[in-house]
Amino acid sequence: MAAARLSTFASKVTTTLAPARSKVVESYSKMMADNAQYVVTDAAVEDKLLKQWFYTKMSKIGPTMKAADAEAQLWRKSWDNRNSATVGELSRMALFGAEVVAWFAVGEYVGRGFKPAPL
Fold first, then answer.
1. How many separate helices (H) and strands (E) can be counted in the chain?
2. Maximum Cα–Cα distance for the chain, whole Å?
3. Where are the domains of the chain?
4. How confident is the model at residue 23, as a pLDDT?
5. Fewer CB within 10 Å: C terminus or N terminus of the chain?
């Protein structure tokens, strides 16, 4: 009985999704036909492109690390000078912290499917 119900359900899903599937396949085929000049079919060229992409990404690590280090130095400096911060700077920091917490809370709420937190 359960197998028959499952088979019926599967056939309903298949017939329901068939138009969407054909539309996606048609859209994909059209996109690939329109952009055929950008497709690399030679394995040697493909390997070269992969290496170029990899080493391009690797070359960006140095500047990214330098920028992250500079940002960390600014944070350390502001933390060391926190006792001499003005009310405006402190309120801006508090608002930033509240915004980060709010975005986290909204993300948790959306991730649960808009359901309240379990107790």
1. 4, 0
2. 75
3. 1-33
4. 93
5. C
